[in-house]
Structures are given as structure tokens and as C-alpha cells.
Amino acid sequence: MLIPCVQELTSPPRASQVVKECAQACMHTTYQFLYDNANDLYARQFQEKVSTDEPGPSLKSLDFWHRLIALLVSVIEEDKTTYAAVINQFPQEANMGLISAYCMWTRLSEDLSAALEQHAAASNRYCKTSDYMNLCFKVKWFYNTHIAEVPELKSVVPAYPSWFEPFVMQWLNENDEISMDYLRNAYQRDKKDGFHRSSGQALFSNSVVDVFTQLNQCFDIMKKLECPDPVVNDRFLNRFSQTVGKVLLTYAEVVKADFGHWVEFQETACILMNNIQQCRVQLEKVYEAMGGDQNLKEYTREVMHDLQQMLNDVIDEMAERYSVALRPQILAKVKEVNKLLHQISSNSKASIESEADLILRPLMDHFESSLSVYADICEKTVLKRILKELWKITMYTFEKQVVLPPVSDPSALFLNLSIPSNATAKLSSVSQTLLSNVSSQLPNNKLLQEMSKESANLTLRNLTPRHCQILDIALDAIKSYFHAGGSGLKNSYLENSPEFQSLQYILSLYTQTTDALIKNFVFTQKSQDKPAVENSVGELSIQVDLFRHPSNGEHKVTVSILSANNLKWQTSGTFRPFVEVYILGPLLADKKRKFATKSKTGVWSPTFNESCTFLLGAGSDPDSYELHLCAKDYCFGRSDRLIGLTVLQLRDLTASTDTLGLGTSGSCACWCALGSRLNLDDTGWTILRILSQRPSDEVAREFVRLKSEVRGQDDSVAKTTGSAPSTLRRGKS
């Protein structure tokens, strides 16, 4: 008998504990019986025919576990309703229903986790992914219904999500391909239908709706898993975020690839851009449903945020491509603005504000008609992207058509200059060589590309100070229009856009003095000798000494032209090379600016040994000056022909400061490579354009001529290799 045995113990256990242990022993035996005879018991109890050759677990089927769980549920229900009502002496310490649930779950966990490990490790999985997902949902239901209330398990994270993790991941992997196929089919249907709006109120088409229907269905299944293990759930969400990213980026790529066919169709192009924006909107909703910033792990948040940014970039790219269709319209209207601007006389009595309104009327009328349409067919975000592109196009076109109208003939730079009669022949040669070489001089230069597109009849037209004032007011009016009282583009964007700043900068150059423009040129054009380094046509040996007088602060520049070497030149007549040296910089109008050596006859490596001195004046900064050196072939009775040229900036001589307080001084002896032309960027050409519009300024006229000179094509020689850049040997004076 149990009671006498217990009574004989020195420290007998509590009666409730004895009852609990006896119940657990019975339940373990019951579980084992169910496990060993699951198929037969299930067939008898549920009156269902079980067709299987294997009595226990199998790699080819998961049916055994469904049957076992059904039998376990029956046992637990019976223990709750039948035995718990009879063995109720210790309801708090020995609840038969809870003890049964705990024992059955413990044994099932051991067996099912081991079996699923075998399935996960198998090289070939015979069961479908959906079978594993169904079993996962069955286990989840079993746990939530019968196990979650067990006191011993309330504070423990259930382990079953980790058993099924490999199979859920497999399902997510398979869902990738399903979603991709769904995406392609949805897009093709949408394209076939002409990308019509999905509804009367929507601004996007059906393909976006279909894509997110599929993604949301996938996410709904994940939500129904109700994964109680936060670590495993985080991995599920991260994997799902990769699916979302793959699908949406593929959709964006497909739309981008097709977009070029629709840019000429306003409504369809806008719907396609709206589709990408709607992807961003729906993505944000999915992100919040997944947990948002508060609950998602950092790596998952990064995936989703990066995806948002990539979609945002796609909209920018599409808007930029769409803007190509807008450019001809803007160009035509800005040309009308330019025409009206130059019809205004400098002596006009009308107010500047009224004249600004007058010249802007064609452009503003165009904006009013077109933007009202975009407001009706574009999502707000897409509309702002289009506004940004319109703003950039407008500012760029104003710069190239109004402030700096392009010319096809670079000799137009000289049309307004007052040329001395004895320089006419030389200038003609300069213009012709510049014309013949301009395409090879700066092949990637946007300014020259624009210049080559205009008609040959277009002449350079000056902007008067009144024109500049009108343009300032006109630009403010356009900026206010695009800002639209705060509902349009931000003022910070408008004012900081590169196109607007470039236009403002060029307008500001018009108001600068010739000295200021030349100083700006010297500071910004730091690689003028690039062609000489890349393809030398000869070398000059020079000695340059810079000295600052300690008492009056005047700078003196002494240039010694020693010799030339290996001048690459072909001529049918007598070769008579000589060298010209110019000092270029501010405040030189009343000072000596040029020196020329005597010519040498029939020598391709002549020796000159001639010197000259230039004075810069008190208070001048040597960094604002440069030496312009040209080797030429002297021709009696016709224009001298350019052999090569280069530039040496005085900042190269002032790398160190006199420690005795005598001022900035320096010297160098160097071989300077000669090139067939100078290398200028957009700023350099802009300054030349502005200076060319000052016909009465001798310094401006000379500067434009020097910087525009190019060796003629007929005088070119084959490129040589091994030309080294200039080598400086510096020393303090």
C-alpha cells in the first residue's frame, strides 16, 4: 500500500506532491502509448482511415504529428473534465488538467524538435513547404489553447518557433519567386491596359495595387504565426524586408526601363512616376505594420530606410528624364524673353518692375497652363520633383540664352572689340585658328557644346546695366512663383540650387570691373597648361625673379628668356621663331605689360638670353598675376603664326615668405612645356565672354585675344610621347 510506505519515511512528502508525481508518471506512460500507437488510435477515435506504411514519424510525411497532437488534445480535455473533477483535493497544487498539459507538451517538444531537425538536415525534403507551415500553425494553436496557461511555462519563451525557423525561411525564399512572377504578370497586364488609373480618385495604376496585394498577403501569413520568440521573429521580419526590397526594386527597374517610351505622353509618364511614389507610401505602411522605428531591429530598419531612399532616387531619375521633353518648350519661351529684353532701351522711362513683368509674360503664361495640368495628374511629391526640374531647366536656359547667349563662331568674341588697324591681320588669323580648333580644344565643355548648336547668324549682344537690373527682378519673380507662398519649393532649395547660383554668379560678373574679372580668372584657371603637359610642341627655358621693395611695397618681376628647345614646327618658308611675354593681372592699364624677343632665323632650338622687367605696383598681391608666354613664327607682311603657349602663375614663386620681414619674394628657373592651346573651364570662358563685350577697354581686348589664341590645325604635328611637365628649380631671392 502507498500510504504505509509513505508513513515509514522519516520526512514524508506532502500528499499533494505524492498525487502530482503519481499523475505525472501515469501521463508519461499515456503519452508513450499514444506515440507508439498514434495511427491506430487516431483511426478508431476519429473514425478516419489512416493509410500509411510507417507507424511513426517519417521524412516523407508530417501527418503523424497532426494525429498525435489531436490525440494529445483529447487526453488533456479528458483530464480537465473527468479526472480533475474527481481528484480535486488539491486544486492549487495538483490540477490534473494543467499537469496533463505540461507533461504532454514536454514530451511532444522533445520528439517533435528532434524530428524537425532531421527534416531540416535532410538533403531532399519530401514534404512541401506548405505542409511545414500548416504543422507550425497546428503547434501554435495547440500551445495557445492548452499549454500557455500552465504555470511552469508562463514565464518561459516557447521554443517551437525555432523548430520551424528553417521551414518558414524556406517559405519566404519560395515566396520571393512567387512575388516576382506576380509582379511581372501584374506589370504586363497594366502595360497592356495602357496604365490607366486604378480608380477615379487614384493617381496611380493597377500594377502597384497588385504588387502590394501579394506582399500584404505574405505579411498577413507572417502575422498569423504570432511568433512568441522575439529573436526568431526579428529574423523573420528581416528576411521579409529583403523580399519587399527585391520586389519593389525590381518593379522600379522595370518601370525605369520602360519609361523612355512614355516620356512624350504626359499623363502616362506622370502615372508611372506616381506608381513609384505610391510604392513609397505603401512601403511606409508595411514598415509601420512590421513594428516601425519603435520595435524593429536596427538592421531591418536600415534595409527599409535604404529601400525608401532608393525609390526616392528612382523618382528623381525619372523626373530628370521626363524633363528632357520639357526643355524645348522652356527654351522657346526663354528665347522670347531674351528677345523682349533686348528690345528695351537703356533710356526707357518705364519702371524696371513693369519691364520685368513684360519680358516674363511668355514664360509665366506657359507655367500657368502647364503646371495646372500637373497639379491635377501628379502626386504632390512627384509634382515637386517636376517643379525642381523645371526650375533647373529655367535657370540653366536663362544662363545660356539670355545672360550668355551661345555663338557658333568663336570669333564673335572679337566682334565688339575696337581693333587697331595694324592688328587686323593677326586677329583674323587668331579667329580662324580658334574656329578650326575649338572642337578639339574643349570637347567636354558644356559652354562650347551649346555654342556650336546655334545659327551662324547669331551675334553677341551686350547686357546693359539696366538689363542686369531687370533680370535680377525677373529672377526674384520666378523664384517667388516656384515658392508659391510656401506650398511649392522651399526657398532654401531654390537659392542653393547650382543652376541658380551659377546664374547669379555670372550676372554678378557683369557688374565687376575688368581688373576684378582678370583677377578672378587668374585665381580660378589653375590648369591652363594642361595641354602643354599632355602634348608638348616645344619648351622654353626661363628664369623668373620676384622682388618686393621693403620700403614702398612695389613688386618687380624680372623675366629672362634663355632659350627654346625642340620647337615642333613645319614651314615651307624661313623659320624665324621669337617669344612674347605678357604680365596679366589687375591694375596694369598704365604699366608695361608686354615684351618680345628678337627673332632667330632657321633655328628650331634658338638661344635668346634676353630679359625684361614688369612692375606690379605697391600693395599688389603677386598671387593675382601670371606670365603668359607665347612662341611664334615671325612672318613679314602677314600675321605671325603661333607655335605654342603656356602660363606661369606667380603664386608658384611665392610658396615661402621672407623671414626677415622684407615681403614676399621668390625665384625659379624652369623649362616650360608649350601647348597648342590653353585649358579653360566654364568660369574662364564666361569671363572671356564678358570681357569681349567691353570694346573700349584695351586691357580687356588684349586679355581676350591672348587667352583665345590656338595653334592652327595646318601647323599641328603628330603627338609625341615622353613630354614631361615643367620642372621648377626655386630659390628665395
Automatic annotation (TrEMBL):
Record-annotated MHD1 domain positions: 110-255
InterPro entries in alphabetical order: C2_dom, C2_domain_sf, MUN_dom, Munc13_1, Munc13_dom-2, Unc-13
Biological-process GO terms, alphabetical: dense core granule priming; presynaptic dense core vesicle exocytosis; synaptic transmission, glutamatergic; synaptic vesicle docking; synaptic vesicle priming
Organism of provenance: Mesocestoides corti (Flatworm)
**GO CC field:** neuromuscular junction; presynaptic active zone cytoplasmic component; presynaptic membrane; synaptic vesicle membrane; terminal bouton
Q: Specify the domain of life of the species encoding this protein.
A: Eukaryota
Q: What is this protein called?
A: Phorbol-ester/DAG-type domain-containing protein
Chain residue ranges for the region called Disordered = 711-733
The alphabetized UniProt keywords are: Metal-binding, Repeat, Zinc, Zinc-finger
Q: Which GO terms describe its molecular function?
A: calmodulin binding; diacylglycerol binding; syntaxin-1 binding; zinc ion binding
Q: Where is the MHD2 domain?
A: 357-521
Q: Where does the C2 domain lie?
A: 536-663
